[in-house]
Amino acid sequence: MRIFALLSFLFLFSFQASLSTASAVPDAPSPRVTPVVRAVHAVAPAVVNITSTHIIEGSRVSPLERFFGPDFFYGMPGEPARRQKRTSLGSGVIVDGANGLVLTNAHVIAGGDDVVVRLLDGREFSAAVCGADPDFDIAVLRIVGAHNLPEAQMGDSSDILPGETVIAIGNPFGFTHTVTTGVVSALGRTIRNESGVFTDLIQTDAAINPGNSGGPLLNIEGRLIGVNTAVDARAEGIGFAIPVNKARRVMDDLVKQGGVAPLWLGMMVQDMDSRTAMALGLKDVTGVLVNAVYEGAPAARAGIMPGDVLLSVNASPVQDKRDYVNVLRNQTEDAILRLQLHRGDKSVVVSLKPARFEDVAAQALMEQRWGLTARESGGGLAVSAVRRDGPADFLRKGDMIVAVGAVRIKTMRELLQAFRRERLAGQVLLQVVRDGRQYYARLVL
Fold first, then answer.
1. Degrees to nearest 5, angle at CA 317 with 362 and 106
2. Which of the four, 130, 175, 224, 300, has the lowest number of CB atoms within 10 Å?
3. For the chain, which domains are there?
C-alpha cells in the first residue's frame, strides 16, 4: 500500500512538473495575456522550492529505508529505532543567476544540515548558506554547481503605492509554483512575535500560506519588490513581505561581510513606571526614559537629551527598553528613523540615521556598564580584569564566561554581540566556569 502511494505521488509530481514547464504565453495577442500573466511567465523560472533537512542520527538505517525513505517503517508494529528527519519547506527567488544567489527567509533554512533547491524545470541542486540574519529574517543561498540561471529583476520598494496590484509566487503546503494576486494593503507595518520585532513591512492581501515564506512579491511589471515572510493567523488576507530595498542591503552585507553590522543611536534608556510617568506629565505608563546621551552619537546630533521620553520609532510604539533594542536590530544603516519624544509638556519629533555600533565602542561601554574585561584564551573567554565594587566584582581573573543568558559564547565578538543585545537589561545572567566547575552568576546593574 505504501509502495503504491509512493509511486502515485511520483507520477502526480512528474505530471504537475510537465504541466508547469509546458505552459507558455501565446505568441499572438490575446486578452488572456494580462500583465499578471506576463509577470508570472517572466519570473516563475527564477522561483525555487527550498527543502531544508536536519537529520538526527540514531541506529543504522535498513536497506528498505534507504530505498523508500526514513518514514517507511513509521507506524508499523515493532518499528525499529532509526534516524529522525526534520524537514522544512519554503520558497526562494534567484536574484543573481550568474553566481547562483538565492534570496529567502532565515527561518526557512534555520537548523538545516542539507539544503536543496528545485527549479521550475525540475532540476535540483544543493545549496550552501552564504549568510543568514534572523533579526531581518533574510538568508542568502549559493546554488552549488549551477551558473547562468534565470533571475528575477529587483525593483524599488521606496515608491510602492497602497492599492497597487501585487503577485506572490511560492510553494504553499508543497504545491510548487503557486501564483496568487492581491493588492498592497498598507506600508510600514510592524509585527511582533517570539523572535523579535520586524519593522517597515509591506502588508498585502495576496494569499500567503506556509511554504510561501521566502518567495517573491512582484509588482505588475514583474519586478521583485518584496520577500514574503509571514501571515497573520488570526485573519484571512493579511500577509507581510520584507521590502526589497531592505532585503538587498541585508543581502549585500551577508555576502560581503558575513553578517549585518549592529547599529545604535548612542543613548541609554530605562523603563517607565507610574511614578516617573506622573512626574513627567504623562497620562499613561508608556515609552522609555532617556537617561544618557553619548557625545557625537546620532542621538546627540539630533538634539535628544536626558529626560526625554521616547514613545515611538517610525510610528511603531516603543513599549519598554527591550522593545527599543529589538526595533533597532531590524534597521539598516541608511534607514531614516523618525522618533517621537515627550519633552516637558510637548511632543517633539526628530529624524536621524543610526550608526554602526563598532566593537571598540561596545567594548568600552561593556567595561563601564558591566565592570569587566575579557580576552580569548584556550578556546574560550577568560576574565582578565574586574572593577572593584562593580556589578561583576564576584568574578575572578581567569574565570571562563561560556554563556550570556541562554546564548553560548566562545569569542570576544560573540561576547560583544551579547552585550549589544543585553546592554539595557537591569540583570544579566552569566554562565561561568571556575576550576572546572560550572555555575550561574547574575549581574545586577
1. 60
2. 175
3. 33-75+83-260 (2.40.10.120), 263-356 (2.30.42.10), 360-444 (2.30.42.10)
Catalytic residue, chosen from 213, 253, 312, 399, is 213
- Beta carbons of 302 and 360 less than 8 angstroms apart: no
d(C-alpha 153, C-alpha 243), whole Å: 14
pLDDT digits (tens, 9 = 90+) for 44-66: 999 999 998 866 555 444 444 44
107 catalytic residue (yes or no)? yes
How does pLDDT run across 238-281, given as a tens digit for each residue? 899 999 999 999 999 999 888 888 899 999 999 999 999 998 88
State whether residue 64 is helix, strand or coil: helix
d(CA 279, CA 111): 48
Q: How many residues does the chain have?
A: 445
Which sign, positive or negative, has the C-alpha torsion 61, 62, 63, 68? negative
Rounded distance between C-alpha atoms, residue 278 and residue 12, angstroms: 67
Distance, CA of 162 to CA of 36 (rounded, Å): 18
Residues 6+ away with beta carbon under 8 Å from 269:
288, 289, 290, 291, 310, 321, 324, 424
**Is residue 18 annotated as a catalytic residue, yes or no?**
no
Least confident segment among 156-160, 268-272, 424-428: 424-428
Catalytic residue among 96, 133, 137, 323: 137
pTM as predicted: 0.78
Query: Are 235 and 267 a contacting pair, CB within 8 Å?
Result: no
pLDDT of residue 10: 41
Dihedral angle sign, alpha carbons of residues 155, 159, 165, 168: positive
Cα–Cα distance for residue pair 133/255, rounded to 1 Å: 11
Closest Cα partner for 134 from 374, 421, 373, 341?
Answer: 421
- Decide if 139 contacts 108 (C-beta within 8 A): yes
Q: Which three cell numbers stand for residue 64?
A: 528498505
pLDDT on residue 233? 62
**pLDDT category of residue 434 using cuts at 50, 70 and 90:** very high
Find all residues with CB under 8 Å of 188, minimum gap 6, and list them: 199, 200, 201, 314, 315
Q: In sequence order, what are the beta bridge partners of 430? A: 404, 441
CA–CA dist 370, 385 (Å, integer) = 11
Task: Tell me the C-alpha distance between 142 and 118, whole Å.
Answer: 13
Residue 72 binned pLDDT confidence (cut-offs 50, 70, 90): very low
Residue pair 374/383 in contact by the 8 Å Cβ criterion:
yes
Q: Can you list the positions of beta strands (E) in 144-265?
A: 165-170, 178-193, 196-204, 216-219, 224-231, 239-243, 263-264
